[in-house]
Amino acid sequence: MATPEKASPRDRLLDAAAGLFYRDGVSIGVEALCRTAGVSKRSMYQLFDGKDEVLAASLERRIPWYEAQLRPAEPEAMSPRRQILYVFERLAERSGDPGYRGCPYLAVLVELKDPEHPASAVARGVKERLAADFRALAEQGGARDPDLLARQLMLVFDGASARAGARVERLDDGLATATVTALLDAAGMRT
């Protein structure tokens, strides 16, 4: 990655967008975005059609990092049950960070409320991939109803993320992993 003073205007805009939108929400104005990035509005509009496109591109750019945070380094060394629990352990760890505001992709879906918005499409894709991963692991682990278990796991993930991001719930006490353990047991995923 380029150093901040060597980063291109595009990279500076995407970095600023990721930080601002995550911290303050998607209502941040173009002026604040450009000021934070150190890029003129004219340059921004030469690079992107508008703020919506910047938001979508910043979310897209962070997907590999975000998804890597939820995957073990060597998943093949873990059972499907253990891989699912790993996701919730990572969520609990991340939620303790002072700057944690919840899942950035869920936040965008909730804030925008527009399924046609380009950023909503990016966020929905991330959530759909996580659900598909949960479903595949549930199936591999012998869950009685992998589809239902994947939906339940998404509810716990998104609910825990949102509540921890709003600072109304703490996850460092094992609440999310205990809840997921009960779901895995009830679904028949013992190992």
TrEMBL record:
Pfam families, alphabetized: TetR_N
Example of a GO MF term: DNA binding
Residue ranges of the TM segments: none
Transcription regulation listed as a keyword: yes
Domain of life according to the entry: Bacteria
Positions in coiled-coil regions: none
DNA-binding region: 29-48
Keyword Cell membrane assigned: no
Boundaries of every HTH tetR-type domain copy: 7-66
Keywords: DNA-binding, Transcription, Transcription regulation
Protein name: TetR family transcriptional regulator
Native species: Streptomyces shenzhenensis
